[in-house]
Every structure is written in structure tokens, then in C-alpha cells.
Amino acid sequence: MAKDLTLAANSSLAKQAPTKSETVVQRAFIVGIALAVMWGLEVIDLALGGSLDQLGIYPRHVTGLIGVPLAPFLHAGFGHLIANTIPFALLGFLTIMRGVSTFFLVSGFVTVIGGMAVWLMASSGYHIGASGLIFGLFGYNMAMAIFERSFKSIILAVLVGLLYGGLIFGVFPGQRGISWEGHLFGCAAGVLYAYVSSRRAAKAAASKR
User: Fold this and answer.
1) What are phi and psi of 183, to 5 degrees?
2) pTM of structure
3) Domain coverage including residue 139
4) Which secondary structure element, helix H or strand E, spans residue 117, and what is its range?
5) Which tens digits make up the pLDDT trace of 98-127?
């Protein structure tokens, strides 16, 4: 009787496990929520006359620290947001397919470390936009092919390179009003997280041998 109950419970759990297609949809939904927050805040910003932009990162001012977690969600108009929407959607999706926790850890690391670097060293002015995070996701996926050297990482890096290889030029000073520092520090933070996480995974694997 007990064995029958256990088998029934296991069968029930197996039925509840999401299929691959359901997993893809669920993970795409998470990225979609992040985009929805960006778009919702931009609508509110429009209604407030652009005042939310002043919640961005303002280097070397204590009040500018509030922008570290907020900057990726704020944009200087819908043109700015539209330009970031598709890159974030694609790179975010490729990253979250590595795992939901990976997506949040990479995003959090890039947002905080990249944002703090902007606050410490970037030029004066409000730094806003998801581009720093986008560059971080780009740097992370490209670097994982080098540090992890797995088939999955190499395939993802090839996809990222084909889609957005030209992003690398955005880490250099260029168009006025574009936070190239945000791009540079975001990308560097993504690469750094790839290095740290791959080293940690390698040590964990070695300890099990």
C-alpha cells in the first residue's frame, strides 16, 4: 500500500513537471516582465515631464547612488527605450535559458558592479538606460565561451556574436550624450561575473572527483 502511494505521488509530480516548451515560455515571460516595467516607468515618466530621469546614476554624488539599481529601468524617451528593447529581449532570453537564477545573478551583478563603477568614474550627468545591462549580458555570454569552454557556451557566444557583435564598439567614446562608460563598465562586469562563476563551478566539479 505504501509503495503504491509513493508511486502515485511520484507519478503526480512527474505530470506536474513543466515541458521544455512551457519552460521556454515561462522564462520568456520573466524577461517580458522586466521589459514591461521599463515601458511602464517610461509612460509614468512621460506623464511626469521626464522627472524620473533624475533618479539615474549621478557620478560622485551621494543622491546619485539611488540610480545604481534604478538606471536600467529608466530611459530618456521612447526612442531610447525602443533602441534597448530588442537587444535586452534577445540577450536576456539567451541568458535566462542558462537558468533563471543565472539570469538574475548576472543581471544583479552587472547592475550593481557596473553601476558603482559608473558612479565612481563616469562623467558628470545622469546616466540612465538598460544599455549597461545589455552590454553586461553581451560580455557575460561571450566570456563564458572562453572560461567555460562547453559546447553550449560556445553556441550561445556564436549566436550573441552574430546578433550583436558590433556592440563591442560601444565601449569606446563616441556620440555625445551616450554613456559609453556605462557600456564599458557593464561589459566588464559581465565578463568578470563569467570568470568568477566559471571558476567557482570548476572548483565545485573538482571537489566532487
Assistant:
1) -65, -50
2) 0.87
3) 19-207
4) helix 115-121
5) 999 999 999 999 999 999 999 999 999 999
- Confidence category of residue 10, pLDDT binned at 50, 70, 90: very low
78 HSE (CA, 13 A, CB side): 7
Residue 125, C-alpha cell as written in the block: 550627468
Per the structure block, which three cell numbers stand in for 19? 515541458
Domain for residue 13, yes or no? no
Q: DSSP letters along 49-90, please? A: TTGGGGGSB-TT-GGGGGHHHHGGG--SSHHHHHHHHHHHHH
CATH code for the domain in which residue 115 is found: 1.20.1540.10
Residue 57 backbone dihedrals phi, psi, to 5 degrees: -75, 125
What distance, in Å, lies between the first and last C-alpha atoms of the chain?
A: 39
How many whole angstroms separate alpha carbon 64 and alpha carbon 58?
Answer: 4
What are the CA-CA distances from residue 136 to residues 95, 132, 143, 171, 192 (Å)? 11, 6, 10, 11, 9
Return the residue matching grid coordinates 502511494.
5
| Amino acid identity at 137 | L
